[in-house]
Design a protein that fits this description.
heterodimer, A: five-stranded antiparallel β-sheet, five-stranded mixed β-sheet, 10 strands, B: mainly beta, Immunoglobulin-like, 0% helix
Amino acid sequence: QKEVEQDPGPLSVPEGAIVSLNCTYSNSAFQYFMWYRQYSRKGPELLMYTYSSGNKEDGRFTAQVDKSSKYISLFIRDSQPSDSATYLCAPGTNFNKFYFGSGTKLNVKP
Amino acid sequence: DVKVTQSSRYLVKRTGEKVFLECVQDMDHENMFWYRQDPGLGLRLIYFSYDVKMKEKGDIPEGYSVSREKKERFSLILESASTNQTSMYLCASSNRGSGNTIYFGEGSWLTVV
């Protein structure tokens, strides 16, 4: 079983839609959770960082963590064509080891 | 802003050549990483280093070696390039300690012909 499972998509939505991106994980040791955005032929860039369960909001982006069900989500409100990218979830432990989902490719159509 | 710089963005090399991929970070991070990223396989860790001259194998170290002579610089070496090493290579760095995030470079696209 993979440490982190993520639907690869692609996910195609119209501009203005609410997007939900999700990951499940198996390791209870994961303490904090990151989302990365990766544009085509670029390196991943840190988008959101949350620690433990709960929600964190940053502009149009909301990260949600449910540690009891080992489920993490990223919501994008009022999606824009510039949000078209691949989104990777990345749980982390306290031991400097990082795990990554395989990424969900999102396409927001104008 | 954290800056992780990969010196070569696009390279084409011949089978059997020795290839060097260089990476420099400017945030005084202790940890540095090399990943490769392939469609459908996600990010796979090749090697990481938690200190100067220290290195640890990741999940797919075969065919690769690394060098970390200075804290800010981490090099990936393909001793004898093969076509199955055609990929995107990502360097990354992070601080040591809990709760730290990892920062990536822009990536190096390597094609081995």
